[in-house]
Amino acid sequence: MTAMLAPMNQVRDLVLDSTRNLKPSVEVLDADVEEVVGSDEEPALLIKLHVVHQKSEKDWTLSRVRMIQKIRDELINSGDQRYPFVTVLTDDEWKRRRK
Question: Which of 55, 58, 31 lies closest to 45, judged by CA?
């Protein structure tokens, strides 16, 4: 039986809500979400996050891993089994991709 998949605007809200309680040194400003087909031919999610962080590179790597895992956990808890491919973009990268 195939699970009902949430529309992209609901997935976007879930992604933003799941990242709001991260430490104050990481702030997710925005997110783009689209459905794609993964290499296994299954539905997947392409998630782009606009993030500002004020951490050392070592701390930032750990925060990024925790943020992505939190998103995955929330998707699973909501019944969405699509794999999230998450890209984290800095302020400059986010602005460049919006042009």
Answer: 31
d(CA 29, CA 20): 9
Q: Which fold has domain 8-94?
A: Alpha-Beta Plaits (3.30.70)
- Local structure of 34: helix, strand or coil: strand
So where are the chain's domains? Answer: 8-94
Predicted model pTM: 0.84
pLDDT tens per residue, range 32-49: 999 999 899 999 999 999
Is there a contact between 86 and 63 (Cβ–Cβ < 8 Å)? no
